[in-house]
Amino acid sequence: MRWHQTLKIKAHLKLKIECKLKSFCQTSPFKLSALLSKDSESLNVTFSFSKGLENLLYSDSKSVDNLREHNLWKETCFELFLKNKNSTEYIEVNISTTGSWNIYVFEDERIGMKEYSLSQGPFISNNLRTTSEIGFKLGLNSLPDFIKESNFQYQISAVLKTIDDCFFYAIKHLDNHPNFHSFKAFNNLDNYNEAHQHSEQ
């Protein structure tokens, strides 16, 4: 499969980024990829397993879905980071296989963390048992302007637990320990502008 990135750097136009996520440890039972997309109404992320899902320790949806919870990263958790390209502000989205979620906003790298206020939480689709995928959708109206305008840097990550271990996945790791908040590991949309920008009416 050819991994590619196609995008538009303008407000409300389509964005599509596909990427392989890499384990911080060289040896891992999983192969995981992610698709980040945006249109005029929503932001969407889908995580797909191509190997090792049978080793994943996770729970299915609770009877009460869409519950906002803290500390989801202490168990199997799927994450998205979007940073304002023109400042140190960024948001962190966490979702769980149970349907629980949270979104935080930071003033700077790991500084000033607080829950991000929004009228409606993400729509989470857990299809791990059928299509080996899990993902979420967020309405753009509830997100900061820098996301609506595609004026952001991004990191996509996951914490994957097994019975006796824990694996940290991200697009790239640049520290000597797992650190999804590291600004230097965030990815720039501008890096792909010349090669992949295309016009749509």
Explain this structure to me?
The protein is mainly beta. It has a single domain, classed as Immunoglobulin-like, CATH 2.60.40. It has three helices and 13 strands; from the N terminus they run E-E-E-E-E-E-E-E-E-H-E-H-E-E-E-H. The chain has helices spanning 128-131, 145-148, 193-196; strands spanning 5-6, 15-23, 31-38, 42-51, 77-84, 90-95, 101-106, 114-115, 123-127, 133-139, 152-161, 166-170, 187-188. The longest helix is centred in the middle third of the chain and has 4 residues, at 128-131. Residues 1-11 and 192-201 have low confidence and may be disordered.
Summarize the entry for a quick read.
It contains three helices and 13 strands. With 201 residues, it is mainly beta. Strands 1, 2, 3, 4, 5, 6, 7, 8, 9, 10, 11, 12 and 13 form a 13-stranded antiparallel sheet that branches.
